[in-house]
Specification:
The complex is a heterodimer. Chain A is of the alpha/beta class. Chain A has a domain at about 5-85 and about 150-175 and about 180-230: P-loop containing nucleotide triphosphate hydrolases (Rossmann fold, 3-Layer(aba) Sandwich), CATH 3.40.50.300. Chain A has 12 helices and 10 strands. Chain B is mainly α. Helices cover about 75% and strands about 5% of the residues of chain B. Chain B has 11 helices and 4 strands, in the order H-H-H-H-E-E-E-H-H-H-H-E-H-H-H. Chain B has a two-stranded antiparallel sheet. Chain B has a two-stranded antiparallel sheet with strand order 2-3. In chain B, a hairpin with a 2-residue loop joins strand 2 (about 155-160) and strand 3 (about 165). In chain B, helix 1 runs parallel beside helix 5 (about 170-190) and helix 9 packs across helix 10 (about 265-290). Classes of the chains: A alpha/beta, B mainly alpha. Chain B: Belongs to the binding-protein-dependent transport system permease family. LivHM subfamily.
Chain lengths: ~260, ~325
Amino acid sequence: MLLDIQDIHVHYGKIEALKGISLQVDEGEIVTLIGANGAGKSTTLKTISGLRPLSSGKVVFEGRDISKMPGHKRVLVGIGQSPEGRGVFPGMTVEENLYMGAYARKGDASKTLAEVYELFPRLAERKKQFGGTMSGGEQQMVAIGRALMTDPKVLLLDEPSMGLAPMLIQQIFDIIKEINRRGKTVLVVEQNAQQALSLAHRAYVLETGAVVKSAPARELLDDPQVRAAYLGGDLAVEDTAPAAGTAADGSVDLGKGEAGE
Amino acid sequence: MFNDFISQFPQSTVDGLAVGAIFALIALGYTMVYGVLRLINFAHSEIFMVGTVAGLFTISQVFDIKSPLTGFALVGMVLLLLVVAMAASGGAAVLLELVAYRPLRRRGASRLAALISAIGASFFLQEVFALQVIPKLFDRPEGRNQIGVPRIMDKDVLFSVGSMDVRTDHVLVVVAAVVMMVALDQFVTRTKVGRGIRATAQDPETAVLMGVNIDTIVRTTFLLGGAMAGVAALLYIVKFEITAYNIGFILGVKAFTAAVLGGIGNLRGALVGGFALGLIENWGAIFFGSEWKDVIAFTVLVIILMFRPTGLLGESLQQARA
């Protein structure tokens, strides 16, 4: 077991954001957390990275309890995160942003940098551009590339599809698949359940701070409840007449293009 | 009046640049701390005061100066005072952060709480110096009076252009300030710690994900800002030859103004804002008399901010280089 989250509870003031979440990530896997806004997906990732303090429960990484380890040290044990909203440093160039990923590393990071540029040729073309002036898709590439620069054992991705056009989403997910193929373990949080479930080996479904389902991702793609809640549902298929109207405003959709908005 | 302006303009410019350089050095402390913590460190004016007192103490204790120094003695003295003032102000700033701000930050207190803490720390330092430190260090019964600083360098006219006299102290102040600011800018742009400071200023949470230790960065920021106030303190006692427990107050307000004028959170903005404010008040003084200096400076500030709310350099806070 690479990453073992045991019954974690996290509070924002008096509000309990995570109500006892447990999940595991094995080496070499892609695991996804899906769920609606506010289900606690991002909070889970932030807690793993040490940005949010635990009220109770444990985060165990490679058999070692890191629950009390400060956030800036967790990078060095092998947890790299591409944060929600990308967190690209606006006043730094692409290359400076990428090198920030190697901030805590000892030794030369130029080999990793070359790999990142190979994965994202677009970034290699724009080394000197400032992060703040880039498009959403390019910023997402910077954020993922920067997380790779930490040379992580597990790569945490927080909503890589957020705000991107469907074509770009496909591209980003293909790259995630490639990163995994090269041996990186990936834990990805997504609202775009269709894409995430097609990509991942296993999935957890989160609702209001708790895990309500966990299964191989393929199974969840066919699960009627999951389809209804996160994949736009089968309503549209059964109820053809009104569906035509609703599909037009995008509220009911089989999930193929939903995250483009 | 216009003839007055023409005739006094060159000299006012030189004087304005000299005092502006001091504003700019103090402004760096406000702007760096704001950039990293989004906090106005109102006790920064006292950090400057500590530097002037430490400088004066060094002069009064270590050396017995009857007449201004020259040559190597002067250079050595200025360097010694520079080190002492930077260490005193930098150390005081680090201590201030540790005592007045860090505990609040740890407990997630609001920014307003930190602001109150800053004002409290400012009063605390002033009173401690007035009641204890200054009377004891200089053997004076009353700690609230201004103290004269012995003249350590001759203020010779180096060269004159028309009616404009450029003196040695003008040159020392402006050159030292610019050199220190270039050094600081290079530090922030090129070193690893500097990258950590910029990352923290732009996105503190993501900076942690990169392995940046925020506590170390905050401490370093206070140290650097304090050290720059120490440089300003040295230049101030050389140029103006006085200090007092509350000497930082007006200068602090002006330096803070300079930081906002240039674009707070922006290192180069502090330089631009400092020089701009120094020039504006000295030019304005020609028209209205020097007793109106402060009114002129702040009126101009308000007008400039109406048209450029983010300051002269206009960079938004998060995008600032520091």
